[in-house]
Amino acid sequence: MFVGGSTLDDIRANVDAIRVQAAEFGRDPDTISFLAGAHVVVAETEQAAREKAADYARYRTPGRLSHSLPALPT
Question: Is the distance from CB of 23 to CB of 57 less than 8 angstroms?
Fold first, then answer.
């Protein structure tokens, strides 16, 4: 199962919540595999990468999944 979150603690909380729900529906929560995504920002320097990440964060909507897919035709 794909799972997201802004921090490791967010991801851990999401995984825990899914496992609880799975158990409530009669599924063994230990049989569920998880894959967390990561947003990696690179630049010439660490400072430039941090500035770029801060700029990207201005466009993020908490609780919403959004991706920029410029390689896909519109």
Answer: no
